[in-house]
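A reminder from the course coordinator: this example appears on the midterm review sheet, so study it carefully.

Given structure:
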């Protein structure tokens, strides 16, 4: 039986071993340097291709940007998808009133950016990625990016008065969330990513109010086709978090797909060298084609 920590380290090393793949184009959706989208044209097939919008993970923390997911974006492009890989502002943000500085995320800039990027992607794709078919758009994200993907698909059910609320469901074929931090309370109980959820929302005092508008488990049902892909051996975002989201969806009257992969940890889901990455591509194709 392999040592779980050793296997996790090997999987992470493999996922980060691939050189970054430059996009075919990069477009801005705002003035901040992090408000950009990398666009990858499909490498195979003729005609217009489904568009996959990718949100990277990294616990909403500044050192982790979209470049570590560029091999995954290229992998999807080689599978015949058009890909838009979104960057967004991450921590550290401005100091809190108590003098601490959030390590994970910026409030409200992280959510401002994801909302603005998703709103801008159809026009950016039309201008810079004509091979993309915006009528066949699927949203995906890994880890913290999985949380943002689930959240972005739920903007039409945000509390009244939210600046991110949409008047109607977003034009998505569906969401494939990869080991998402999709249930904040369960993630906090498990101390996922060293308290990143609490940091993202600005600390304990702000948690409950802000979680009501950002925790995917509290924004159900969405009516958007949703699938979670989760490794059972994930040590970073344990499978219990995915289970809690699926249970919350069921209680809200919504069926969410859950593909559990045996002997798979956190990083193979976005590692082009791993079999799990092919499973992810198939889940996207099931919704997109």
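Designed residues:
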């Amino acid at each position: 039986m392999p040592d779980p920590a050793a296997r996790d380290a090997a999987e992470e090393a493999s996922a980060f071993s691939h050189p970054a793949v430059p996009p075919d184009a990069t477009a801005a959706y705002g003035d901040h340097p992090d408000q950009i989208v990398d666009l990858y044209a499909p490498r195979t097939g003729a005609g217009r291709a489904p568009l996959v919008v990718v949100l990277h993970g990294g616990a909403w923390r500044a050192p982790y940007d979209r470049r570590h997911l560029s091999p995954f974006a290229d992998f999807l492009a080689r599978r015949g998808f058009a890909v838009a890989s979104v960057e967004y502002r991450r921590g550290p943000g401005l100091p809190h009133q108590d003098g601490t500085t959030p390590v994970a995320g910026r409030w409200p800039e992280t959510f401002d950016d994801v909302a603005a990027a998703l709103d801008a992607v159809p026009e950016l794709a039309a201008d810079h990625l004509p091979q993309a078919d915006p009528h066949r758009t699927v949203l995906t994200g890994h880890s913290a990016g999985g949380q943002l993907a689930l959240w972005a698909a739920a903007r039409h059910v945000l509390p009244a008065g939210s600046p991110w609320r949409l008047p109607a469901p977003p034009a998505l074929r569906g969401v494939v969330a990869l080991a998402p931090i999709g249930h904040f309370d369960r993630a906090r109980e498990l101390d996922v990513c060293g308290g990143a959820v609490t940091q993202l929302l600005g600390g304990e005092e702000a948690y409950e109010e802000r979680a009501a508008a950002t925790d995917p488990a509290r924004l159900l049902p969405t009516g958007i086709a949703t699938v979670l892909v989760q490794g059972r051996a994930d040590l970073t975002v344990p499978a219990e978090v995915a289970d809690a989201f699926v249970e919350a969806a069921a209680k809200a009257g919504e069926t969410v797909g859950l593909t559990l992969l045996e002997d798979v940890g956190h990083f193979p889901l976005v590692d082009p060298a791993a079999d799990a990455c092919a499973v992810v591509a198939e889940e996207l194709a099931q919704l997109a084609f």
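The domain at 4-288 is CATH 3.40.50.1820 (Rossmann fold). The chain has a mean pLDDT of 95.
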